Amino acid sequence: MTTPPAEGTALTTAALALGDDALVLSHRLGEWAGHAPVLEEEVALANIALDLLGQARVLLSMAGDEDELAYLREERAFRNLQLVEQPNGDFAHTIARQLYFSTYQHLLHTELAAGDGPFAPLAAKAVKEIAYHRDHAEQWTLRLGDGTDESHARMQRAVDALWRYTGEMFQPVEGLDADWTGLEAAWLEQTGEVLRRATLTVPESPRTGAWTAGAGRQGLHTEPFGRMLAEMQHLHRSHPGATW
Amino acid sequence: MVTTTPLEAELLELAGSVPDPELPVLTLRELGVVRAVRARGTDTVEVELTPTYTGCPAVEAMSLDIERVLREHGVREVTVRTVLAPAWSTDDITDEGRRKLREFGIAPPRVRPTSGPVRVELGPTRTHPTPRDAREEDLGPVRCPHCGSAETELLSRFSSTACKALRRCLACREPFDHFKEL
Fold first, then answer.
1. What's the structural domain count of chain A?
2. What angle do CA A84, A75, A164 make, to 5 degrees?
3. ipTM confidence
4. Which site from A123, B34, B36, B105 is most exposed, i.e. has the minimal number of CB atoms within 10 Å?
5. Between chain A and chain B, how many beta carbons pairs sit less than 8 Å apart?
6. Closest-CA distance of chain A to residue B157, Å
7. B68 touches chain A (CB under 8 A)
8. Secondary structure letter of residue B153 according to DSSP
């Protein structure tokens, strides 16, 4: 089966970027099922994943057939940020990824919801869900950062490790009418405020690397993403059209 | 509001009478998710349904139930369309719906004040020792659906479904679900 819109309109480009972010992060969070540190987190991460999956379904349907797009595209055709494809790591890594992404998503969707573009209806709805995701990530960042020596060290390690993937979030996306410079400034301010309150050090290292230039939005992904896709797409590709 | 014919009003009533698949104590009308019913000709009907959460898996079951009920009442062709705008809010749950939730043991979502003075927040001066419900100050306490106490604590921001949080009453010690404000 061949796959989708390599070219396409600005709407398709934007829908794939936002939709792939939501889909890929949803899958990563779903990997915690059965492995989360406590039952409440098992439920919380699965619920956040479900919200993201719902957003992904709406967005991918704007770009084409949701199942074909999710299950039959090759790695290079995905337009998600490299941040969301990063492995779960320890719980601190998952929380740092959540903090970075939900803060970004909240700011972006707030702006999209205020406009009258094609993404406004979804953004208005999603932003209310994302507020809970951000709240969840913030509270855990505070608890881990301002917790024991061990949790503090791990949280700092996670915050540092994922920092290099945060510059990519503010590259303009064709088809999205947003003030990217303003979003980035707000993101740095909000994220920095949470990190400082959590007694963590705001990283000063670069927010992009030579290898990430352009990166996810152009279809260049990190090594773990291929393996994630293999698992995500395996069933659908082995049993095309199967239903139950 | 577009004009509604008596037939459409009747069909809206029918579609709204379908129980929510996950909270069967509530009807879809009480939940506030059936937006409109439009009759096209005599036996073709389009229903507009809005999801509570974007990823709410109950939407498919709701659609099937609405189709079934309308077909049983002689409508030949039923199409249920999902609409996102305007976004559903827990303020769309009717008073009757809130009462039923409470009776069922779920603390209903608090209602946002629509007018009156707006609180100006000053930044917190220290980290709170326990997870804080930032909405508490605006919306008032979440009361225990069992004993009515306002002394309750948050156990988990997410519960059995995306729309609920898990809390515990400090007076009667019962844990309970809280339908989160959205």
1. 1
2. 35
3. 0.79
4. B105
5. 74
6. 7
7. no
8. E
